[in-house]
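Q: Hi! First time doing this. I have a protein sequence and I read that you can turn it into a structure. Is that right? Here it is:
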Amino acid sequence: MGEITLSQTKRLVLRRLSGEGLTPFRAYRGDPEVAKFQGWKSMDEEEAIGFLTDMEATSLLEAGAWTQLGIAVREGNALIGDVGVHIADNESEAELGITLAAGAQGQSIGFDVVEMVCAWLFVQTKIARIVAITHADNKRALALLERTPFQHTHDTIDEIDGTLTPERWFERRRC
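A: Yes, that's right. Below is the predicted 3D structure, encoded as structure tokens:
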């Protein structure tokens, strides 16, 4: 199937993940600083190939399921991250989570990704809101979300892998 563009801006492309992005995917997903606040574990090559193959073939925006989409620089089409999108069972909301390679951070790429993905989701689905949840100590993610139209709604403490984790919740409603 290969890489299929879903949306794009002047400098970024939102696309399906595919095996063609294996090397950069494994590089940023294997970076301990990038993975620090994420809910996933690093993958060996075989696991990464299986994951990318699954994401290439999975139905997009299926209710009750997560879909990981690739984020690439438009010029050169280099994969620099991915965004996870989960559509609620009742299709009323979506949750998103973004992972960017260390070299792509601090350049407003995260802001552009959030805007691109939210616009795409509101066009492609009937969801009323998008939720973003981040670790309360993830200063970069907090700064990003505070720059966007997302609004902080509440804080929780969740148990993740046996550890109590403070989380900050944000939402963005359809206009």
